[in-house]
């Protein structure tokens, strides 16, 4: 996935998790809703200042917006999770490490496997 689209997806996930509309986020950033839409669609690159502002407003570390470079196969490991399961794993605590987040995803997978056995 292209980096701008990945970052946009993360912005949208976090904004929706916090129940913030695009209009509200645009107002907080003193920009337009169209700009927020373009960030989320990956058609406009958020510069460093915008990413830091987004991180602050969305209550995450700026690293939240970037794929984990230490676990290149992580996205492949998450492919069998539904979008809701991925959101749960990534939204439990935005300050946990990517390793801890991967552990949560693995727990979700174990729970899914055990549920199917019953």
Characterize the structure shown:
The protein has helices at residues 3-17, 22-29, 33-41, 48-57, 74-77, 83-91, 98-117. The protein is mainly α and 118 residues long. 64% of the residues lie in helices and 0% in strands. The radius of gyration is 15 Å and the shape is elongated. Helix 6 (83-91) crosses helix 7 (98-117). The N and C termini lie far apart (36 Å). Residues 69-78 have low confidence and may be disordered. It is built from 7 helices and no strands.
Distance between the termini: 36 Å
Uncertain residue ranges: 69-78
Percent of residues in β-strands: under 5%
Sheet bearing the most strands, described? none
Determine the mean pLDDT.
Answer: 79
Shape descriptor: elongated
SS class: mainly alpha
Question: What string, H for helix and E for strand, traces the elements in order?
Answer: HHHHHHH
Computed CA radius of gyration, to the nearest angstrom = 15 Å
Number of helices: 7
According to DSSP, the number of beta strands is: 0
In short:
The protein is an all-alpha fold. The chain is built from seven helices and no strands.
Task: List the defining traits of the structure above.
118 residues, elongated, mainly alpha, 7 helices
Topology diagram in text:
Elements: H1 3-17, H2 22-29, H3 33-41, H4 48-57, H5 74-77, H6 83-91, H7 98-117
Helix pairs in contact: 1-3, 2-3, 6-7
């Amino acid at each position: 996935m292209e980096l701008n689209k990945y970052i946009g997806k993360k912005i949208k996930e976090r904004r929706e998790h916090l129940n913030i509309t695009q209009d509200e986020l645009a107002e907080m950033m003193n920009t337009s809703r169209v700009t927020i839409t373009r960030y989320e669609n990956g058609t406009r690159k958020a510069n460093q200042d915008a990413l830091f502002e987004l991180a602050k407003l969305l209550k995450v570390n700026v690293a939240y917006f970037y794929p984990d470079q230490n676990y290149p196969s992580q996205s492949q490991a998450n492919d069998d999770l539904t979008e809701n399961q991925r959101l749960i794993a990534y939204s439990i605590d935005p300050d946990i490490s990517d390793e801890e987040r991967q552990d949560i995803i693995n727990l979700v997978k174990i729970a899914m496997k055990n549920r199917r056995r019953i």
